[in-house]
Amino acid sequence: MSQKIAVIVASGTGSRMGSEIPKQFLPLNGKPVLVHTLEKFLSIHDCHIILVLSEAGKAYWQPISEQFFPDTYIPVITGGDTRYQSVKNALNSLDTDVPTIVAIHDAVRPLVPLNVILNAYVVAEQFGSAVTCVDSKDSVRLITEDRNQALERKKVKLIQTPQTFQWDILKKAYELPYIDSFTDDASVVEAAGYTIHLVEGSYANLKITTPEDLFLAEHLLHESAH
Ligand SMILES: Nc1ccn([C@@H]2O[C@H](COP(=O)(O)OP(=O)(O)OP(=O)(O)O)[C@@H](O)[C@H]2O)c(=O)n1
Ligand SMILES: C[C@](O)(CO)[C@H](O)COP(=O)(O)O
Protein backbone atom coordinates (compact mmCIF):
# COMPACT_ATOMS: atom_id res chain seq x y z
CA MET A 1 0.00 0.00 0.00
CA SER A 2 1.45 3.37 -1.03
CA GLN A 3 1.75 6.45 1.13
CA LYS A 4 -1.12 8.94 0.60
CA ILE A 5 -0.50 12.66 0.19
CA ALA A 6 -3.09 15.36 -0.49
CA VAL A 7 -2.13 18.77 -1.85
CA ILE A 8 -4.93 21.22 -1.08
CA VAL A 9 -4.57 24.30 -3.27
CA ALA A 10 -5.97 27.37 -1.53
CA SER A 11 -3.78 30.17 -2.83
CA GLY A 12 -6.26 31.81 -5.23
CA THR A 13 -7.76 35.27 -4.90
CA GLY A 14 -11.31 34.29 -5.86
CA SER A 15 -11.77 37.15 -8.34
CA ARG A 16 -14.98 35.67 -9.81
CA MET A 17 -16.58 35.51 -6.35
CA GLY A 18 -16.10 39.25 -5.99
CA SER A 19 -15.75 39.04 -2.21
CA GLU A 20 -13.14 40.91 -0.18
CA ILE A 21 -12.36 37.74 1.75
CA PRO A 22 -11.02 35.00 -0.58
CA LYS A 23 -13.78 32.42 -1.12
CA GLN A 24 -11.88 29.56 0.56
CA PHE A 25 -12.17 31.47 3.87
CA LEU A 26 -15.87 32.41 3.50
CA PRO A 27 -18.31 30.73 5.91
CA LEU A 28 -20.26 27.72 4.69
CA ASN A 29 -22.73 26.28 7.16
CA GLY A 30 -20.87 27.76 10.11
CA LYS A 31 -17.26 27.08 9.17
CA PRO A 32 -14.88 28.26 6.44
CA VAL A 33 -15.04 26.48 3.08
CA LEU A 34 -11.40 25.39 3.53
CA VAL A 35 -12.20 23.72 6.87
CA HIS A 36 -14.84 21.50 5.25
CA THR A 37 -12.30 20.45 2.63
CA LEU A 38 -9.49 19.77 5.10
CA GLU A 39 -11.80 17.77 7.38
CA LYS A 40 -12.56 15.40 4.50
CA PHE A 41 -8.89 14.61 3.90
CA LEU A 42 -8.00 14.55 7.61
CA SER A 43 -10.63 11.84 8.09
CA ILE A 44 -8.56 9.52 5.86
CA HIS A 45 -6.22 7.30 7.83
CA ASP A 46 -2.56 8.07 7.11
CA CYS A 47 -3.20 10.83 4.59
CA HIS A 48 -0.55 13.56 4.78
CA ILE A 49 -1.81 16.99 3.85
CA ILE A 50 0.09 19.88 2.27
CA LEU A 51 -1.85 23.13 2.29
CA VAL A 52 -0.96 25.80 -0.28
CA LEU A 53 -1.71 29.41 0.72
CA SER A 54 -0.80 32.86 -0.55
CA GLU A 55 1.02 35.25 1.79
CA ALA A 56 -2.26 37.14 2.26
CA GLY A 57 -4.10 33.87 2.86
CA LYS A 58 -1.78 32.92 5.71
CA ALA A 59 -3.23 35.77 7.79
CA TYR A 60 -6.75 34.32 7.36
CA TRP A 61 -5.49 30.79 8.03
CA GLN A 62 -3.76 31.54 11.35
CA PRO A 63 -6.93 32.03 13.49
CA ILE A 64 -8.80 29.35 11.55
CA SER A 65 -6.13 26.74 12.25
CA GLU A 66 -6.10 27.67 15.95
CA GLN A 67 -9.89 27.39 16.20
CA PHE A 68 -10.54 24.27 14.10
CA PHE A 69 -7.29 22.28 14.16
CA PRO A 70 -5.55 23.17 17.44
CA ASP A 71 -3.92 19.73 17.77
CA THR A 72 -3.15 18.98 14.13
CA TYR A 73 0.02 19.97 12.30
CA ILE A 74 -0.80 20.99 8.73
CA PRO A 75 2.28 22.00 6.71
CA VAL A 76 1.81 25.17 4.65
CA ILE A 77 3.56 26.01 1.37
CA THR A 78 3.40 29.42 -0.30
CA GLY A 79 1.47 29.41 -3.58
CA GLY A 80 2.23 31.13 -6.87
CA ASP A 81 0.45 33.44 -9.28
CA THR A 82 -1.41 30.58 -10.98
CA ARG A 83 -2.89 27.27 -9.85
CA TYR A 84 -0.18 25.49 -11.86
CA GLN A 85 2.55 27.38 -10.00
CA SER A 86 0.88 26.71 -6.65
CA VAL A 87 0.83 22.96 -7.30
CA LYS A 88 4.44 23.10 -8.54
CA ASN A 89 5.56 24.82 -5.32
CA ALA A 90 3.88 22.12 -3.25
CA LEU A 91 5.46 19.32 -5.27
CA ASN A 92 8.89 20.98 -5.02
CA SER A 93 8.58 20.75 -1.24
CA LEU A 94 8.06 16.99 -1.42
CA ASP A 95 10.83 14.45 -1.31
CA THR A 96 9.90 10.81 -0.96
CA ASP A 97 11.43 7.52 -2.05
CA VAL A 98 8.63 5.26 -0.84
CA PRO A 99 5.72 4.49 -3.21
CA THR A 100 3.43 7.50 -2.96
CA ILE A 101 0.11 8.57 -4.43
CA VAL A 102 -0.63 12.31 -4.53
CA ALA A 103 -4.15 13.72 -4.75
CA ILE A 104 -4.42 17.36 -5.77
CA HIS A 105 -7.66 18.99 -4.68
CA ASP A 106 -9.17 22.46 -4.93
CA ALA A 107 -9.78 23.92 -1.47
CA VAL A 108 -12.97 25.34 -2.97
CA ARG A 109 -14.55 21.91 -3.56
CA PRO A 110 -15.67 21.33 0.04
CA LEU A 111 -18.45 18.86 -0.73
CA VAL A 112 -16.29 16.21 -2.35
CA PRO A 113 -17.61 12.82 -1.19
CA LEU A 114 -15.15 10.71 0.81
CA ASN A 115 -15.74 7.67 -1.43
CA VAL A 116 -14.69 9.69 -4.49
CA ILE A 117 -11.37 10.58 -2.83
CA LEU A 118 -10.72 7.03 -1.64
CA ASN A 119 -11.57 5.48 -4.99
CA ALA A 120 -9.20 7.89 -6.76
CA TYR A 121 -6.31 6.80 -4.50
CA VAL A 122 -7.02 3.13 -5.26
CA VAL A 123 -7.35 3.63 -9.02
CA ALA A 124 -4.27 5.87 -9.31
CA GLU A 125 -2.23 3.18 -7.58
CA GLN A 126 -3.27 0.74 -10.29
CA PHE A 127 -3.33 2.95 -13.40
CA GLY A 128 -0.96 5.83 -12.62
CA SER A 129 -3.69 8.46 -12.59
CA ALA A 130 -7.30 8.93 -11.51
CA VAL A 131 -8.97 12.15 -12.61
CA THR A 132 -12.53 12.68 -11.41
CA CYS A 133 -15.22 13.74 -13.86
CA VAL A 134 -18.95 13.83 -14.51
CA ASP A 135 -21.10 13.80 -17.64
CA SER A 136 -22.41 17.11 -18.88
CA LYS A 137 -26.14 17.45 -18.22
CA ASP A 138 -26.33 20.31 -20.72
CA SER A 139 -25.81 20.26 -24.46
CA VAL A 140 -22.38 21.53 -25.43
CA ARG A 141 -21.04 23.63 -28.33
CA LEU A 142 -17.55 24.31 -29.57
CA ILE A 143 -16.79 27.97 -30.25
CA THR A 144 -14.49 28.56 -33.22
CA GLU A 145 -13.37 31.88 -34.71
CA ASP A 146 -16.34 32.38 -37.01
CA ARG A 147 -19.06 30.08 -35.68
CA ASN A 148 -20.19 27.67 -33.03
CA GLN A 149 -20.93 24.03 -33.48
CA ALA A 150 -22.79 21.30 -31.58
CA LEU A 151 -20.57 18.65 -29.99
CA GLU A 152 -21.64 15.10 -29.29
CA ARG A 153 -22.39 15.40 -25.59
CA LYS A 154 -21.40 11.87 -24.66
CA LYS A 155 -17.89 12.65 -25.91
CA VAL A 156 -17.48 15.43 -23.34
CA LYS A 157 -16.64 15.09 -19.63
CA LEU A 158 -16.59 17.82 -17.01
CA ILE A 159 -13.39 17.52 -15.02
CA GLN A 160 -13.22 17.92 -11.25
CA THR A 161 -10.71 17.39 -8.48
CA PRO A 162 -9.29 15.37 -6.80
CA GLN A 163 -6.83 14.60 -9.58
CA THR A 164 -4.69 11.80 -8.23
CA PHE A 165 -1.38 10.45 -9.54
CA GLN A 166 1.54 8.20 -8.75
CA TRP A 167 4.25 10.47 -7.40
CA ASP A 168 6.87 9.52 -10.04
CA ILE A 169 4.55 10.50 -12.89
CA LEU A 170 3.43 13.76 -11.30
CA LYS A 171 6.97 14.75 -10.37
CA LYS A 172 8.28 14.14 -13.91
CA ALA A 173 5.40 16.08 -15.48
CA TYR A 174 5.78 19.11 -13.19
CA GLU A 175 9.57 19.16 -13.70
CA LEU A 176 9.18 19.83 -17.44
CA PRO A 177 9.75 23.44 -18.50
CA TYR A 178 6.23 24.42 -19.55
CA ILE A 179 4.88 27.83 -20.32
CA ASP A 180 2.26 28.04 -17.66
CA SER A 181 -1.19 27.81 -19.31
CA PHE A 182 -2.72 24.75 -17.67
CA THR A 183 -6.01 24.88 -15.81
CA ASP A 184 -5.62 21.48 -14.18
CA ASP A 185 -3.10 18.76 -13.33
CA ALA A 186 -4.38 16.20 -15.83
CA SER A 187 -3.37 18.62 -18.61
CA VAL A 188 0.16 18.88 -17.22
CA VAL A 189 0.54 15.10 -16.94
CA GLU A 190 -0.98 14.60 -20.40
CA ALA A 191 1.40 17.17 -21.93
CA ALA A 192 4.26 15.10 -20.49
CA GLY A 193 3.08 12.15 -22.60
CA TYR A 194 1.00 10.11 -20.14
CA THR A 195 -2.52 8.80 -20.71
CA ILE A 196 -5.11 10.08 -18.26
CA HIS A 197 -7.38 7.60 -16.48
CA LEU A 198 -10.81 9.08 -15.75
CA VAL A 199 -12.92 8.04 -12.75
CA GLU A 200 -16.41 8.93 -11.57
CA GLY A 201 -16.68 12.24 -9.70
CA SER A 202 -19.86 13.65 -8.20
CA TYR A 203 -22.37 16.35 -9.10
CA ALA A 204 -22.27 17.37 -5.43
CA ASN A 205 -18.56 18.14 -5.80
CA LEU A 206 -19.20 21.64 -7.06
CA LYS A 207 -16.45 24.21 -7.27
CA ILE A 208 -17.28 27.35 -5.31
CA THR A 209 -16.57 29.94 -7.99
CA THR A 210 -19.38 32.53 -7.97
CA PRO A 211 -21.88 33.54 -5.24
CA GLU A 212 -24.62 31.14 -6.39
CA ASP A 213 -22.24 28.20 -5.83
CA LEU A 214 -21.97 29.12 -2.16
CA PHE A 215 -25.76 29.30 -1.95
CA LEU A 216 -26.10 25.87 -3.61
CA ALA A 217 -23.45 24.36 -1.34
CA GLU A 218 -25.31 25.65 1.77
CA HIS A 219 -28.49 23.97 0.55
CA LEU A 220 -26.76 20.69 -0.33
CA LEU A 221 -25.22 20.58 3.15
CA HIS A 222 -28.58 21.28 4.83
CA GLU A 223 -30.26 18.56 2.76
CA SER A 224 -27.59 15.97 3.57
CA ALA A 225 -27.88 16.78 7.30
CA HIS A 226 -31.64 16.00 7.35
N1 LIG B 1 -2.67 31.01 -7.92
C1 LIG B 1 -3.58 30.12 -7.53
C2 LIG B 1 -4.86 30.09 -8.12
C3 LIG B 1 -5.78 29.16 -7.66
N2 LIG B 1 -5.46 28.34 -6.65
C4 LIG B 1 -6.47 27.42 -6.10
O1 LIG B 1 -6.98 26.59 -7.12
C5 LIG B 1 -8.33 26.25 -6.85
C6 LIG B 1 -9.21 26.43 -8.10
O2 LIG B 1 -9.06 27.75 -8.58
P1 LIG B 1 -10.22 28.82 -8.78
O3 LIG B 1 -11.54 28.28 -8.41
O4 LIG B 1 -10.05 29.44 -10.10
O5 LIG B 1 -9.82 29.86 -7.64
P2 LIG B 1 -9.35 31.36 -7.78
O6 LIG B 1 -8.16 31.45 -8.68
O7 LIG B 1 -9.19 31.80 -6.38
O8 LIG B 1 -10.63 32.05 -8.41
P3 LIG B 1 -10.74 33.08 -9.62
O9 LIG B 1 -10.24 32.35 -10.85
O10 LIG B 1 -12.18 33.44 -9.67
O11 LIG B 1 -9.86 34.27 -9.26
C7 LIG B 1 -8.78 27.13 -5.68
O12 LIG B 1 -8.87 26.32 -4.52
C8 LIG B 1 -7.70 28.16 -5.57
O13 LIG B 1 -7.48 28.65 -4.26
C9 LIG B 1 -4.20 28.36 -6.08
O14 LIG B 1 -3.91 27.60 -5.16
N3 LIG B 1 -3.27 29.27 -6.55
C1 LIG C 1 -8.89 22.03 -11.56
C2 LIG C 1 -10.31 22.36 -11.93
O1 LIG C 1 -11.10 22.52 -10.77
C3 LIG C 1 -10.90 21.18 -12.69
O2 LIG C 1 -12.21 21.48 -13.06
C4 LIG C 1 -10.40 23.60 -12.77
O3 LIG C 1 -9.74 23.40 -13.98
C5 LIG C 1 -9.88 24.83 -12.07
O4 LIG C 1 -10.05 25.92 -12.96
P1 LIG C 1 -10.01 27.41 -12.48
O5 LIG C 1 -10.01 28.24 -13.71
O6 LIG C 1 -8.75 27.53 -11.67
O7 LIG C 1 -11.25 27.62 -11.70
UniProtKB/TrEMBL annotation:
It comes from Leadbetterella byssophila (strain DSM 17132 / JCM 16389 / KACC 11308 / NBRC 106382 / 4M15). It comes from the Bacteria. CDD domains: CDP-ME_synthetase. It holds the Pfam family IspD. Keywords: Isoprene biosynthesis, Nucleotidyltransferase, Transferase. This is 2-C-methyl-D-erythritol 4-phosphate cytidylyltransferase. The record marks 153, 207 as: Positions MEP for the nucleophilic attack. GO terms for biological process: isopentenyl diphosphate biosynthetic process, methylerythritol 4-phosphate pathway. Catalyzes the formation of 4-diphosphocytidyl-2-C-methyl-D-erythritol from CTP and 2-C-methyl-D-erythritol 4-phosphate (MEP). Its EC number is 2.7.7.60. InterPro entries: IspD, IspD/TarI, IspD/TarI_cytidylyltransf_bact, Nucleotide-diphossugar_trans. It catalyses: 2-C-methyl-D-erythritol 4-phosphate + CTP + H(+) = 4-CDP-2-C-methyl-D-erythritol + diphosphate. GO terms for molecular function: 2-C-methyl-D-erythritol 4-phosphate cytidylyltransferase activity. PANTHER family: 2-C-METHYL-D-ERYTHRITOL 4-PHOSPHATE CYTIDYLYLTRANSFERASE, CHLOROPLASTIC (PTHR32125:SF4). Gene3D superfamilies: Spore Coat Polysaccharide Biosynthesis Protein SpsA, Chain A. Pathway: Isoprenoid biosynthesis; isopentenyl diphosphate biosynthesis via DXP pathway; isopentenyl diphosphate from 1-deoxy-D-xylulose 5-phosphate: step 2/6. Belongs to the IspD/TarI cytidylyltransferase family. IspD subfamily. The record marks 16, 23 as: Transition state stabilizer.
